[in-house]
Design brief:
With 408 residues, this protein is an all-alpha fold. The chain has one domain: MFS general substrate transporter like domains (Growth Hormone, Chain: A). Helix 3 packs antiparallel against helix 4. The protein is globular, with a radius of gyration of 20 Å. The N terminus and C terminus are likely disordered. It is found in: Cell membrane. It holds the Pfam family MFS_1. Its main location: membrane. GO terms for molecular function: transmembrane transporter activity.
Length: 408
């Protein structure tokens, strides 16, 4: 292993250059993902006639594979460096997405999604660890807000591009998405060499650090409830948008609106609120808002009403994303950043898997039983329960994090 650079040992020039590279990488990575994944449920349910439950299970397998194996990606990043693992991960993801272009039945669908998930497991934790290593506690939340703003721009471009390309065929969407991940491989070559673990540390030591950190473990367990709700933007909301709008393009419009709200609000809203409130308070408020928007879908039948609810959900997500990322990075032990950030993905893995399966199943049941409000009310209750539990956890733990107002 190359000589270690600790989390505070990069020059200002190295930090700025590396963080710029990560922003460019973020744009292409998110564009490639969001142009394809929302189209998966629409294509396999509406075009190929698969049950939403089956597609939900396939998406759940992808989710739990990626997040369940992410700790492995974090461990490998601690051992071999983030740059190498990100490059390997985006290559495997590109192969998986290209495979979707030829998946016309359930088994190839599961295989292609699983391959793409392994790629995500290899690059996600190293990517997050690179951000944590190149930022400091005083500017971390600000950078996460900026990174999420870039993600919002990419999430606007992605679904719109996907909606245009699906007019040709689903294969075209898959192959262009794959090409964007190969482009990420080129971009990441400009990232400086980063090691996220002390030279003398061993894998077992890093895993032990995470395993003994009860505060960290309880936080990621609680946040699984949030992900159960949040992943519905990738399965039943696109399906509902197609029904409400009467066209395939409805899903792209709803997701583009969500991204546009992220662009408009992400940086400035988080900045202003963080001057007066803690990250934990903003996080809890965001989950409440997201849950309320999810439940409100049960009250609307029109496409415009659905878009209003998507706007509320997206505003809640704007509050959650950067604050949760900053809390995780601040809570992680800098001796094993990659392992910690890989372990944090278990929250999305388990919560996302449960969310995809229950989302698809509840959607099918609601259609068959003609109770359209069933999935929306269910997920609203889950989200609000999570927010309440998180509020009491913070009070009992007495946790504080660096305020955004400290950023210069």
């Amino acid at each position: 292993m190359s000589p270690e650079k600790g989390i505070h040992q990069y020059s200002p020039g190295e930090r700025k250059s590396g963080l710029r590279v990560l922003l460019v990488y973020t744009f292409f990575m998110v564009t490639g993902f969001t142009m394809l994944m929302p189209m998966v449920a629409v294509h396999y349910v509406n075009d190929l006639g698969m049950a939403a439950t089956l597609v939900g299970v396939a998406l759940a397998v992808r989710q739990i594979t990626q997040q369940g194996l992410a700790i492995g990606g974090g461990i490998l990043a601690d051992l071999y460096g983030t740059k190498r693992m990100i490059g390997l991960g985006v290559t495997v993801r590109a192969i998986g997405f290209a495979g979707l272009a030829f998946a016309d039945s359930a088994l190839p669908l599961f295989i292609a999604l699983t391959v793409s998930a392994v790629g995500g497991a290899l690059f996600e934790a190293p990517y997050q660890a690179a951000i944590a290593a190149l930022t400091t506690s005083s500017d971390r939340t600000r950078y996460y807000s900026l990174s999420n703003w870039v993600s919002g721009v990419a999430s606007t471009v992605g679904p719109l591009l996907g909606a245009i390309l699906v007019g040709f065929d689903f294969m075209t969407v898959c192959l262009v998405s794959s090409a964007l991940f190969f482009l990420c491989l080129v971009v990441i070559t400009r990232l400086p060499v980063i090691h996220t673990s002390r030279e003398s540390s061993h894998v077992s030591d890093n895993i032990r650090l995470v395993g003994q950190d009860r505060r960290f473990a309880s936080l990621i367990m609680l946040m699984a409830g949030y992900w159960v709700v949040a992943v519905q933007m990738g399965i039943i909301i696109p399906l509902q948008a197609g029904i409400s709008s009467g066209s395939k393009g409805g899903a792209g419009i709803a997701l583009a609106l969500s991204a546009a709200i992220t662009i408009a609000l992400q940086y400035h809203l988080t900045s202003r609120l963080s001057r007066s409130f803690s990250n934990h308070a903003i996080l809890t408020a965001g989950i409440v808002l997201l849950s309320a928007g999810m439940g409100a879908i049960a009250l609307f039948q029109s496409f415009s009403g659905l878009l209003f609810c998507v706007a509320v959900i997206s505003t809640g997500a704007v509050l959650v994303r950067p604050t949760y990322q900053a809390i995780i990075a601040d809570t992680a032990n800098p001796k094993a950043l990659g392992t910690y950030l890989g372990a944090s993905s278990l929250s999305l893995g388990f919560g996302g898997a449960i969310g995809h399966i229950t989302g698809g199943a509840l959607f099918d049941v609601s259609v068959e039983s003609q109770v359209p409000g069933l999935p929306w009310v269910t997920f609203a209750v889950i989200g609000l329960t999570t927010a309440i539990a998180l509020h009491y956890w913070v009070r009992r733990a007495g946790v504080t994090t660096t305020a955004f107002s400290d950023c210069k």
